[in-house]
Each structure stands twice: as C-alpha cells, then as structure tokens.
User: Which sequence fits this backbone?
C-alpha cells in the first residue's frame, strides 16, 4: 500500500493544568489514514477523539503537542503558523459537531461559505456561484435565495449542510467530521451521512470520522480505531472489528449498542462490566 495521507505517530497532547503542571490527555497514539479511505475514531466521551482530530489542524492554541503528524509526508507538529493556515480548508476540511456554534450568527451563510475561496483569491462572483451550486447539491432548496439568510433561519439539519459546504468547498484532500450527526434525528442523520458518502466518493476524499455511534461506523467506515482514556486499544477494518473484536473495551462498546431484536430483559453492558472483563482476562 502507498504511503498514508495522514500519519500520526507517537502523538501526545497535554493542556495547562493547575500551577505549572500540565495534564496529558492523549498518550503516544499511532493512527494512519490512506487516500480515499474512511477511518472512524470511536470511543466514549473523554477518550481523546476530538482533541486528536483538532490537533491535526492545531486548533487548540494552548495544547502542547509531541510526536508526529504528517500530511502527505509534510510534518505539521512544530510547523510555522502560516503553513498550518495554508493546510486549513485547502487541504483539510473540518465539520464541527455543533453547527449552530460553528457558524457566525451575524454573518449570512453565503458569506461564510465563500470565505475559503475568497481567502485563496477566487473572485466574489465565482465564489458565490460555486457556493450556490454546492448548497443545491447538498439539498438546500432555493439555494440562491437562501444564500443571504442567517444561521438562525435554518433548521439543525440545514445548518449541518451549511457547515459541510464550508468544509468541502475548497475541495480538501482530507475531511475531518467531528460528530457530524450529533443532536440530529435519525432521518436527518441518514441524509447527512449519505451526503458525506457521496462527496467522499465523487472527490476521492479521505474522511476521518469522529463518533461514539457504532451504528454509523458500520455503514460508513472502512477502518476503525478505538480509543479509551487517551490511548488506542484496537485498530482493525470495519468488518473484522464487528465480527471479532479483540479488546474487552471494544466488545463492551459493541455490547452497549441497543438492538431492535434484542431481549429487552437483558441489561446492556456498562463501563464497569468492561473493566471487570479486562481484569478477568489479565
């Protein structure tokens, strides 16, 4: 297989703590993602998924990074801020988990969609044309009229489409989708995932999906990395992971997924059950 598009090696992430101390939240993880592939980073809240994804674009200015993050061979850890700014949007797009918080409430959605193109020298008329076409492609009806509306005038699902448009309008090589279906109902979740699937296929775009929903992973990802407490505990292709998970924590995550055909009298697994299983296997 060719060299990975994204290679994370020995990554440690720490934040300022009380006094002069720092608190390490990610402990030397390795993650690789090849071109055209879809990798899901899964785990419970606080496992380090989102901070790892944000470290790729160095969005947390107070985070201290150690190790290596290479994008198509280019080292990002320690790179000048101008190089990181050049990567954001153009080579790596990011879909935030809360579209309302991600969008500027006092700017029109059209202005926000056009920004990645305007920053790169595309004319305003051409940027508007591309933005309108992309919104139509993403299922926003009357896109040319809605282009000058504000975020509060859109539903949650429509706002998520706007955030996706901002992330992909510059045609990045890698799309990071951080919990892109959070707080959306099941029907809208399916629509958003279908859009991401189509865009990735059409543009040969690699996708790093951050989620705790293994149901989403099963239908979208090629590979899965399972994180717990800042460490990678398992990395496998999606079929292998669901058919024969090796780590007790992975089995616990799978066991905690509600199933329509499950016996309602059987209790779902908890983290405590997982920890007990881990101790019994040692």
Assistant:
């Amino acid at each position: 297989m060719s060299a990975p598009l994204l290679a994370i090696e020995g990554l440690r992430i720490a934040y300022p703590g009380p006094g002069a101390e720092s608190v390490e939240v990610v402990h030397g993880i390795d993650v690789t993602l090849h071109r055209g592939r879809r990798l899901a980073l899964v785990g419970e809240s606080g496992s380090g998924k989102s901070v790892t994804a944000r470290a790729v674009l160095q969005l947390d200015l107070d985070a201290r990074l150690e190790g290596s993050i290479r994008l198509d061979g280019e080292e990002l850890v320690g790179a000048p801020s101008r190089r990181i700014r050049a990567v954001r949007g153009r080579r790596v797009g990011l879909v935030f988990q809360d579209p309302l918080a991600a969008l500027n409430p006092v700017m029109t959605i059209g202005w926000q969609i056009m920004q990645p193109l305007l920053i790169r020298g595309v004319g305003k008329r051409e940027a508007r044309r591309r933005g309108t076409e992309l919104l139509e492609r993403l299922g926003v009806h009357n896109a040319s009229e809605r282009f000058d509306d504000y975020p509060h005038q859109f539903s949650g699902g429509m706002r998520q489409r706007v955030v996706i448009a901002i992330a992909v309008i510059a045609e990045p090589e890698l799309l990071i989708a951080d919990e892109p279906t959070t707080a959306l109902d099941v029907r809208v979740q399916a629509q958003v995932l279908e859009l991401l699937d189509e865009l990735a296929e059409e543009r040969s775009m690699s996708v790093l999906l951050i989620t705790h929903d293994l149901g989403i992973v099963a239908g979208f990802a090629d590979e899965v990395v399972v994180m717990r407490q800042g460490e990678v505990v398992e990395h496998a292709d999606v079929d292998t992971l669901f058919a024969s998970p090796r780590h007790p924590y992975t089995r616990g995550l799978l066991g905690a997924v509600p199933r329509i055909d499950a016996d309602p009298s059987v209790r779902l697994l908890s983290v405590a059950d997982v920890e007990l299983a881990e101790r019994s296997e040692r």
Q: What stands out?
A: The chain has two domains: 6-91+172-281, 103-171. The radius of gyration is 20 Å.
